[in-house]
Amino acid sequence: MAQRVLIAVDFSPASAQALAVARQHFPQATRRLLQVLRPSDVAANSAAGAAHTGTSPLSSKDMRESAEKEAMEQLEAWAQEGEECGIDVGNAAEEIMRQAEEWGADMIVLGTRGRSQLANMLHGSATEWLIRHARQPVVVVHEVSMDDSIRAHLPPSEIAD
User: Where does the UspA domain lie (predicted)?
Assistant: First the structure.
């Protein structure tokens, strides 16, 4: 049985469902929620923030720290008591695998949005890359309709009325 489960979170419905599945199927495991910010998003936010505040884009370190803090707050809002949270910046697939290895994860859980083959060809798929390269088992959760037993494990912002 998995003792340490890393759950990749990007705040999509698919990642919310992946988190719910991990909570339901691995209730005794230590769970760590990880969000990987794309460098391009951090850079875009830094440039936009610099333009808005009139500061130099060279102060991007402060902007990155701000983006990471904001992401951590959102991640912590999704976390339940006892779940760990982590933020990283980089290539999602590579950072998920690196974090899983450094943290000693027994399993990686992530959601997939099921992009088209063309989108995967143009942008690549973190899910496919992890399935091929991760040393741990990878559980992939698709956006699917859920029964109440899984819905009960969704993060608060994703629970439908």
Answer: 1-142
